Amino acid sequence: MIEVAHLTKRYGAKAAVDDISFTVPPGRVTGFLGPNGAGKSTTLRILLGLDRADAGTALIDGKAYRDLRNPLHRVGALLDGAGPVPERRAVDHLTWIAQSNRIPRRRVHEVLDVVGLGGVARQQVRKYSLGMGQRLGLAAALLGDPEILVLDEPVNGLDPDGIRWVRTFLRDHAARGRTVLLSSHLMTEMADTADEVVVIARGRIAAHGPLDEITAGHASLESAFFALTGDRGPGW
């Protein structure tokens, strides 16, 4: 269970997130939607211990990320823009993460095979396409076989087959009673993947509930999103 309660973060006079609260239950894929600058990345960074909140909490099974024992065994994360040293081989990148978190080396090859990179594991990351880099990021998130996944734009750069694989994997992960928090700009894909949706706009929660409730009375998730946020700008 992920629990965000009265979370507030300011940068100077601007509130990036302003007293937001929501929960992400196990057994469901929860979509996290919002326009650029709405507060999604700030919320995820606080949840993963990369930023500090000014007020409120963002907890994983009742604890702050920094207080988790063996966090990679509890939470797997992929944040947009995060990546390995380009000159490092994929297998070495994952081996370093595994060793520093007491994860068996065999798990490195297991996750590389799972994400479809087993045949290019010894290539330098700089030779990877954008989609291959995303697959490597997913492999890193899966190393500890975590019950909770926090993913920011996981299908960015993937081809249709890769997108379908991610969708199926996340739904299977949730079906096993595990927790998925998924941030994405791809409305159609989110509509096909998510069970629950949290919509954030201008640092506040605009809506939170089951997908069918959020989309009730609207032609699509996209139209519901625009109605809730009032955002039709160039970021979408």
Automatic annotation (TrEMBL):
<dbReference type="InterPro" id="IPR003439">
    <property type="entry name" value="ABC_transporter-like_ATP-bd"/>
</dbReference>
<dbReference type="GO" id="GO:0005524">
    <property type="term" value="F:ATP binding"/>
</dbReference>
<keyword id="KW-0067">ATP-binding</keyword>
<protein>
    <submittedName>
        <fullName>ABC-2 type transport system ATP-binding protein</fullName>
    </submittedName>
</protein>
<keyword id="KW-0813">Transport</keyword>
<keyword id="KW-0547">Nucleotide-binding</keyword>
<dbReference type="Pfam" id="PF00005">
    <property type="entry name" value="ABC_tran"/>
</dbReference>
<comment type="similarity">
    <text>Belongs to the ABC transporter superfamily.</text>
</comment>
<dbReference type="InterPro" id="IPR003593">
    <property type="entry name" value="AAA+_ATPase"/>
</dbReference>
<dbReference type="InterPro" id="IPR027417">
    <property type="entry name" value="P-loop_NTPase"/>
</dbReference>
<dbReference type="GO" id="GO:0016887">
    <property type="term" value="F:ATP hydrolysis activity"/>
</dbReference>
<feature type="domain" description="ABC transporter">
    <location>
        <begin position="2"/>
        <end position="227"/>
    </location>
</feature>
